[in-house]
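Changelog note: in this version the structure field was regenerated for every chain. One regenerated record is shown below for reference.
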Amino acid sequence: MSINTLENELSELSERFRGYYPVVIDVETAGFNAQTDALLEIAAVTLKMDNSGWLLPDESIFFNVKPFAGANLEKAALEFTGIDPFHPLREDVDEGDALAEIFKMVRAGMKATGCKRAILVGHNATFDHNFVMAAAERAKIKRNPFHPFSTFDTSALAALVYGQTVLKKACDTAEIEFSTKEAHNAEYDTRKTAELFCRMINRWKTLGGWPLPERTKPDDESDTGGSL
């Protein structure tokens, strides 16, 4: 790849989302309250843009996470996900260590693409965003690359594009293979959410929605004035 080609590729991603670097994240938890309930799994997938402007999944990372000290573990949540937080072969890490590695990967991607800030992409993204922010605060991580409140929600986008809001149904409609048996695993769900997000962004490009057409001056408008 030539330097000029690489520069064009990188600048396109930084321009596509107003300087935001999209990172797909999914978490599995021991409840719905980000302040009190344990974060148990987290996965992240960064995205890249090829030479033709198509969005693609890039790097990925996954961690089993130790419940933080004093964390609440809702029995119903554990039964739903099937996660045993205390399984001896789980190979889990502290939430601060997991986020430090994810943030390191994200900052490297931001630097490479010239993006100014990361933005979380998720299915019902507010849920994932809340847990990431709460864990980062507990770990006293000062350099959090993610926007403090903005997200890209694939549930809302899928409702627009495919008329579906459930991840499996949206993937089915988008003709993305989806296994119910593997679902509710952060690594799997993040990968499928990344595929879905890229599929929708690329579909918008295919339909002519991006890049935006340049504004042209009306024939009857001069350099000194124009119609109101």
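Spot check on this record: Confidence is low (pLDDT under 50) at residues 1-11, 222-228. The helical segments are 3-16, 75-81, 95-113, 125-138, 154-162, 167-173, 186-206.
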